[in-house]
TrEMBL record:
Source organism of this protein record: Mammaliicoccus fleurettii
UniProt function note: Catalyzes the NADPH-dependent reduction of ketopantoate into pantoic acid.
Pathway(s) the chain acts in: Cofactor biosynthesis; (R)-pantothenate biosynthesis; (R)-pantoate from 3-methyl-2-oxobutanoate: step 2/2
Enzyme class: oxidoreductase
EC number per UniProt: 1.1.1.169
Catalytic activity: (R)-pantoate + NADP(+) = 2-dehydropantoate + NADPH + H(+); 6-phospho-D-gluconate + NADP(+) = D-ribulose 5-phosphate + CO2 + NADPH
A Pfam family per the record: ApbA
Similarity comment: family membership: Belongs to the ketopantoate reductase family.
Name of the protein described by the UniProt record: 2-dehydropantoate 2-reductase
Positions of the Ketopantoate reductase N-terminal domain: 5-129
UniProt xrefs under NCBIfam families: apbA_panE (TIGR00745), PRK12921.1-4 (NF009542)
Length: 283
């Protein structure tokens, strides 16, 4: 049986650990120090306690390692990866934003497109919706899919991985930007002016994707706005929670990643340009 490890006892990492643990897998959840974290489904009372082990003190390797720290925290945990991986381990980077995978010196590394929504408050994680990780298709990811198919975790191995990456980038571009800037959860989209801004960000994000050779249907923006409509009013985003808790933002790897490509292609993206400029001041 494979041994699984997850670095990062936040909303995504704890959800992955819970999903695998519930199906009987051997799972270790790693963080800065030894502690515990409580996991709970949204609108349910039952809580589940998971043990968090110190990554710095770890000395047993795992076969599959999910790295679920924020983009702003990756550099701090890289020196300790060899504590928990062996030469044939598979590493799955599960974080919002792109441009960091090359920092990990290991042959079997892949970045997931993450659809797991939740929030962490202190040592308590609330899971809102979804259990999906989308990965490029190859022998390693197909083996991971097979190994986890009886768990809550939904691993998808896709031929159109590049399109999936851009789709999630654009989804994050809209909702993360407006919730962070306004310091309000999803209910902020009830304001027509904010909803219009969000829509325009999606339009420009699609324009950048097309310049990179990734094309979507004409109704992409409306379909994403409908997804946002399904969010609970009190559901936040990772950047919203970072903003209200005065933590470093992932701007460089979401809005900044798209902004830099817009500049490379000399595109007109005034909404991305202006919102990125403002968010950059909160680093």
């Amino acid at each position: 049986m494979k041994k699984f490890g997850i670095i990062g006892p936040g909303a995504v990492g704890t959800a992955i650990a819970y999903a695998l643990n519930q199906s009987g897998h051997i799972v270790s959840l790693f963080g800065r120090s030894h502690s515990t974290v409580q996991f709970q489904e949204y609108n349910q009372n039952e809580q589940h306690e998971l043990t968090v082990h110190s990554l710095q003190e770890a000395n047993e390797t795992v076969d599959v390692l999910f790295i679920a720290v924020k983009t702003t925290q990756l550099d701090s945990i890289i020196p300790y990866l060899n504590n928990v991986i062996h030469s044939n381990s598979v590493i799955i980077l599960t974080q919002n934003g792109y441009g960091q995978l090359e920092k990990i010196d290991h042959p079997n590394k892949y970045q997931a497109v993450v659809y797991i929504s939740g929030q962490k408050d202190g040592h308590h994680v609330t899971h809102f919706r979804d259990w999906t990780l989308k990965l490029p298709i190859n022998d390693y990811t197909l083996d991971l899919q097979q190994s986890t198919q009886q768990s809550l975790l939904n691993i998808e191995c896709l031929e159109d991985y590049a399109e999936q990456v851009w789709y999630k980038l654009i989804v994050n571009l809209g909702i993360n930007t407006v919730t962070a800037l306004t310091r309000q959860p999803a209910k902020v989209l009830n304001a027509i002016e904010v909803k219009t801004l969000c829509y325009n960000l999606l339009v420009e994000g699609k324009r950048v994707a097309e310049a990179e050779g990734v094309y979507f249907n004409d109704d992409l923006e409306n379909s994403i706005m409908k997804i946002y409509d399904g969010y609970p009013d009190d559901m936040g985003t990772s950047m919203y929670y970072d903003m209200i808790n005065n933590r470093p933002l992932e701007t460089q790897y979401i809005q900044g990643y798209i902004y830099q490509l817009s500049q490379k292609h000399q595109l007109s993206t005034p909404h991305i340009d202006s919102t990125y400029a403002i968010l950059s001041t909160f680093q």
